[in-house]
Amino acid sequence: MIDLSKTIDLSTTYLGLKLKNPLVASSSPLCQEVANVRRIEDSGAAAVVLASMFEEQIELESDELDRFLTEGSELSPESITHFPELTHRVMGPEVYLAHIARCKQAVKIPVIASLNGTTKGGWVGYAKQMQQAGADAIELNVYYIPTDPDLSADSVERTYVDLVRAVKAEVRIPVAVKLGPYFSNMANMAKKLEAAGADGLVLFNRFYQPDFDLESLEVVPNLMLSTPYELLLRLHWIGMLYGNVKPDLALTGGAHSATDIVKAIMAGAKVVMMTSALLKRGISYLDTLSTELLVWLGEHEYDSIKQMQGSMSRNSVPQPRAFERANYMKVLSSYASR
Amino acid sequence: MSSPSAVTRPKVTIDGNEAAAYIAHQASEVIAIYPITPSSNMGEWADQWSAEGKTNIWDTVPTVIEMQSEGGAAGALHGALQAGSLCTTFTAAQGLLLMIPNMYKIAGELTPTVFHIAARTVAAHALSIFGDHSDVMSARSTGFAQLSSCSVQEVMDLALIAHAATLEARVPFLHFFDGFRTSHEVAKVEQLSREDIRAMIDEDLVMAHRARALSPEHPVIRGTAQNPDFYFQAREACNSFYLATPAIVQSVMDKFARVVGRHYHLFDYEGAPDAERVIVIMGSGAEVAHEAVEAMNAAGEKVGVLKVRLFLPFDTEKFIAALPATVKSLAVLDRTKEPGALGEPLYVEVLTGLAQAGVSKRVIGGRYGLSSKEFTPAMVKAVFDELHKPSPKNHFTVGINDDVTHTSLNYDPAYSTEVPGTVRALFYGLGADGTVGANKNSIKIIGEETDNFAQGYFVYDSKKSGAITISHLRFGPKPLHSSYLITRASFVACHQFSFLERVDVLKYAEKGATFLLNSSFGPEEIWDHLPLTVQRQIIDKQLKFYVIDGYEVAKQTGMGGRINTIMQTCFFAISGVLPSEEAIDAIKHAIKKTYGKRGDTVVQKNYAAVDEAVGHLHRVKVPDKVTAQFDIRPAVPANAPEFVQKVTARMLAGEGDELPVSLIPVDGTFPSATTQWEKRNIALEIPVWDEEICIQCGKCVLVCPHATIRAKVYDTAYLEGAPSTFKAVAARWKDFKERKYTLQVAPEDCTGCTLCVQVCPVKSKTEVKHRAINMVAQAPLRDSEAANWDFFLKLPETGRDTLSMNQVKDVQLLRPLFEFSGACSGCGETPYIKLLTQLFGDRTYIGNATGCSSIYGGNLPSTPYCTNAEGHGPTWSNSLFEDNAEFGLGMRLAVDKQNEYARELVARMGMTIGEELAEAILKADQSTEPGIFAQRERVRLLKEKLVGAVTLEARNLAAMADSLVKKSVWILGGDGWAYDIGYGGLDHVLASGRNVNVLVLDTEVYSNTGGQASKSTPRGAVAKFAAAGKPVGKKDLAMMAVSYGSVYVARVAMGAGDMHTLKAFLEAEAFNGPSLIIAYSHCIAHGYDMAYGLEQQKAAVNSGYWPLFRYNPDLVAQGKNPFQLDSRPPSIPLKDYIYNETRYTMLVKSNPDHARVLLEEAKEDVASHWKLYDYLAHESFAAPQEVKK
């Protein structure tokens, strides 16, 4: 029996990091446990993105701790406080930073830290601390939902660009930007981020839209795992951007099978990030995926991942218009003709 | 040994408790404690230092253990001492009394140890948490030496002297200092170093202690039982040790002087060397006397004060030697009262000593300062003046007006000895607003950044919601002996504008003082918003007046409603105690130190607030005449009863000190229902009813912790004369269709907790955030809603016999007989108590364990238990912390006995009272409200018939006739009582079979003493003495009671099942035997927004943490399973419940790995408990079917 792993090269590069394959465990609660990170490596992932550190959450938790410790104090001469004194600083990025360090010690694969900031100072400061803690790269998880109707698209885009520029100016390690698709011109946005110094673009963030509970009349959080249907949006934009922007492209959201991975690579992704598939099927599914990937490449006589990278991007297909408006029209007409 | 001059010791700003704990922790190996005010902090410090890994002078971390009671702590300590450890403990008041049996043993066995006591009043006619010497004086006969400290510095010094002396003397020591006045006074002191402590503790003596330890390696027996032939001689065998102790103490004091530089003596004299009049005193009062003596001598008098340090063993020779030879008369002041004795202990000791020595002096004795009653230089002067009289009063009191037995001395309150050049500042803050914390920081800053001496003392009012805190800060270049409150302030800050209408905040401002006010009114408009009294004093006293809109600055800088650091900055800016930049730097340094562990964001926001503060501070140009048309509101309305007008109102107005003895009840008995007269106006927002969408479910009424939202159903005719804004709609009751329904809020009593809004199930169909009740600003509604409330109260109550008691909807119409308590806003306990009073209050006895529920239930000035229109209501009493179950049982025994005797008399006197009535009384079915109502009527008739009867039987029956109406006995308390200190008694009472109802208000922590862990504290929760998360699971008290099979047991959570709670209360009361209800009570000590308390209760049940169940032994006879599991299997993860609360998340942040382990274990607890309950709930209790042959 032929050992496909010896004849087919699955390796890729991402953010300048040499990876043994394009499988990356994306930022998720799974990565909060060092043991899981170790299992992710054991199951064949080439890199791991740690769960995001949210500046807003650190602030909120600090504020709440301060509030509740204070609210429970100075109430009466008998109960001047209600909690034991904190013995050390408990609020702040320390726990996350220590987690980076522990993961780095635990695994050999690159560890990418993920950061969601709210203030410029927070983005830059925490990014520097992540670098110091040993992260191999940083993923800026820009999860931003503008609610101010007076805020223009231009200002929003400028916010992204400014923060990437600011972080890049302060850290040595590569910086990727994870963002959503809701820009007037995604390609232009990608160019701006490239100009700001982004080393990679992670496409796309998923926005967790809340649901309505009609009995309690409450807006409730609604966390749904990604489905393979979400892959198409990512394929579309990665295919569009590949070859037109310098940053490495990573696909995240909607990849559930080896063929999804193949599509992502062909569109132009350097790596494919996964969470939902692992949550559904377990971390060991990574092992299955890499085997299936090898089999697919073997069956289809590909020598390497690099060979197929971007092979079906907009620039590489004979009819680029398939990526454009005509495609939309065709889809509509195909429904109409049924 | 280091030379005192060669050593520079750090100056620290700490309170007396920390000073004592610092030495005790350094000089001990085993520390066993139990929390009790005001000593709790000493144990907490020791626990914290050990948790942080701080070592003692032998470089090992002392073991600290919290026990189930002080008795337990003393027992553990006794054992540890016998096994050879160096041990200490901290306690006060009843706690010390619980230790007394062990103290006899420890002293009898000549065991060196030191107990540090924050001396506190022993409860007599009433409980008091404040300071006097009644506790230590109760321990005089134990054989412990008693060493007294007068100030924070002395606490640290004499604590060490005690630890050193006990080892040499082998006599155990009580080291005591005044509760609150010294234990809680923050002062700048010189901290002794570890080298100092090492130098003082003689290692050979330590070795000797260890050598005396019990050990199987060289066994001895100790603790024998002895007989008449032997015991007496053995008791005398210790004499030589006691005879030697004073000299040993003095030699240790001499050694301390060589090591540290401060030289103490058994008795230290201060004053004129040729004084003729001398006061003998110990504790903080000695400092006051010291200050007064200096001032009086400076004014040409010749007086002195003798500070007693070693009270026991009393060394007469040294006492006499310490007095100037010129002394002619002595006044001995005791801070305790021993009714019936010839005199108080220090007086008797002095008198006896002088008599035994054959020294003749005039000696008078007097009492002062009981329960932290102020003791001032003016009072000291009054005592000296009394000594001047040809026939001075003996057994006098000073500081009160005893117009009954005329013991009190007159004094001139205007007499002051405040040291010139001392800055004296008063700050009025709101409880929990951080004012006290900021002021403690200010004292530290001044103490540590300048050469000034500094002192801070903090006064709280008796309510836990909307409480006023008053911080008293002194600092200046001269040593401060002023152990009394400031009454001549050079700086007054009022941090809450609303206080101006409640309190005369400028009463103590001296002429030319500075007044800083936090107000949303700017410098131009503020004047027109000040009450008359305030305006007048600003003008008359020529005050420099500043305003700042602290809330605006807080809002701008992300501080929310926190203004403490803003006001602190203004204080420094105005007072000029430090150069501006230096002050700002120091404040920021203090902020970093105080809040740094809570995260950088908190620090940064505080920094921003500090930076913004001064820019918003404005000096007000004071007009030259008073223009106000309104004044400080009267403490109570004019229609309040006489007692409330004469007594309660004075206390509410802060004039309680001026009440004469003649106005005080002689035996601690007070009229109830007095909170209704205290209109506190503390809610910024109050709930407003939307009558259009309300479904009249009554949930809001049920959960209101302060009984400020109420409902009535009444005939339309009663609406005549209603205020124009009074709301009424058609009642949604099948039986009351023709009547009106009103839901009314008491606007001046509401605390604004919003629980009612949170529980409201109605949401507007057009805007879901709008409910059937919604929070609206109080101020514009205050007058109209107050009028509506008054009108509402006059509407008739709905007849109890027409209501279904097992429906929440109907229960809302029952008048609560517990209202407007001082509990925390949003309290999770009080809704249960209120429900109890609605259901059974008119015939209920309540025995209440000491704790939160006894404080909001019975702390003066005003108390919340009240009466219905007939004048019936709960009768309430608090005995102790540890004995409450027994106390309640005693009530039951009395009630049952009275009922039994009354029934016997009714049976015997049938002829007199009428056979028909007698039979009806004896056969009455009182299982329902109509049945009880009918019996009340019969008893009324019976009493009418007995009027004028002269036989002894008739008089006895008349006296006990009320016992023929069914009575309900309720035993209330928290988990500290039920799970820990009172558990033995509770267990016995549950096993007694008697018809008592126990309600455990389970907050899972000692809430009242500040959050110490109890055996109810759940696994993984952080509490004091469980800073690393409670490592073991919560005791299942309910199942322990279930195991008897004869106790009704229910576990309830009102937020998760209000009907279930209601059912449990009704069943418990109906059960003719002991009942136990364990009620989930959310608490400020859990660390989350109390508005979500009911949501958390739901989460507790849904996670399986708090399964609801009822165990009713009566069901067995019906062939039913007595165990009814009333909640569904867990439906949410445990973490979705617990991680909403700071008590759990603190650990996640401070030690995530350990938190994870404890979470897993806690999940297993939930699973195993559920498995057990589920099993019990599915057991078959059906009678076995007959086997057919």
Average pLDDT across residues of chain A? 89
Radius of gyration of chain B: 32 Å
Order of helical and strand elements of chain A: HEEEHEEHHEHEHEHEEEHEHEHHHH
Given as residue ranges, the uncertain stretches of chain A (5+ residues, pLDDT < 50) are none
CATH class of the largest domain in chain B: Alpha Beta
Describe the structure.
The complex is a heterodimer of chains A (338) and B (1189). In chain A, 43% of the residues lie in helices and 14% in strands. Chain A has 13 helices and 13 strands. In chain A, the strands form 3 sheets. Chain A has an 8-stranded parallel β-barrel, surrounded by 8 helices. Chain A has a two-stranded antiparallel ribbon with strand order 1-2. In chain A, strands 10-11 form a two-stranded antiparallel ribbon. In chain A, a hairpin with a 4-residue loop joins strand 10 (211-213) and strand 11. In chain A, helix 5 (120-133) packs parallel to helix 6, helix 6 packs parallel to helix 7 (186-196) and helix 9 (258-267) crosses helix 11. Chain B is α/β, with parallel strands linked by helices. Chain B has 41 helices and 36 strands. Chain B has a 9-stranded mixed sheet. In chain B, strands 30-29-31-32-34-33-35-36 form an 8-stranded mixed sheet, with helices on both faces. A 7-stranded mixed sheet of chain B has the order 3-2-4-5-7-6-12, sandwiched between helices. In chain B, helix 18 crosses helix 20 (600-613) and helix 40 (1142-1150) crosses helix 41. Chain B is globular, with a radius of gyration of 32 Å. In chain B, 55% of the residues are buried. The mean pLDDT of chain B is 96.
How is this fold's topology laid out?
The complex is a heterodimer of chains A (338) and B (1189).
Chain A: H1 4-7, E1 12-14, E2 17-19, E3 23-25, H2 34-42, E4 47-49, E5 53-54, H3 55-71, H4 94-106, E6 111-116, H5 120-133, E7 137-141, H6 153-170, E8 175-179, H7 186-196, E9 200-203, E10 211-213, E11 218-220, H8 231-241, E12 248-252, H9 258-267, E13 271-274, H10 276-281, H11 285-299, H12 305-308, H13 325-336
Parallel strand pairs in A: 3-4, 3-13, 4-6, 5-6, 6-7, 7-8, 8-9, 9-12, 12-13
Antiparallel strand pairs in A: 1-2, 10-11
Chain B: E1 11-15, H1 16-26, E2 30-33, H2 40-51, E3 63-66, H3 70-82, E4 87-91, H4 93-108, E5 114-119, H5 134-138, E6 145-148, H6 152-169, E7 173-178, E8 186-190, H7 194-200, H8 203-211, H9 231-236, H10 239-259, E9 267-271, E10 277-281, H11 284-298, E11 303-308, E12 310-312, H12 316-322, E13 329-334, H13 345-357, E14 362-368, H14 377-388, E15 396-398, E16 408-409, E17 423-430, H15 435-449, E18 453-460, E19 468-476, E20 489-494, E21 509-518, H16 532-540, E22 544-548, H17 550-556, H18 564-575, H19 580-595, H20 600-613, E23 617-619, H21 642-652, E24 685-689, H22 699-703, E25 709-714, E26 729-730, E27 740-745, H23 755-759, E28 773-777, H24 782-794, H25 808-811, H26 830-840, E29 844-848, H27 852-858, E30 875-877, H28 884-908, H29 910-913, H30 915-922, H31 929-946, H32 952-960, E31 968-974, H33 975-981, H34 983-991, E32 997-1002, H35 1037-1042, E33 1048-1052, H36 1058-1070, E34 1075-1080, H37 1093-1102, E35 1109-1111, H38 1114-1117, E36 1123-1125, H39 1134-1138, H40 1142-1150, H41 1152-1177
Parallel strand pairs in B: 2-3, 2-4, 4-5, 5-7, 6-7, 10-11, 10-13, 13-14, 14-15, 15-16, 17-20, 20-21, 21-22, 29-30, 29-31, 31-32, 32-34, 33-34
Antiparallel strand pairs in B: 1-8, 6-12, 8-18, 9-11, 17-19, 18-19, 22-23, 24-28, 25-27, 26-27, 33-35, 35-36
Helix pairs in contact in B: 1-2, 1-6, 3-4, 6-10, 11-14, 12-13, 15-18, 15-19, 18-19, 18-20, 19-20, 28-32, 28-34, 30-31, 40-41
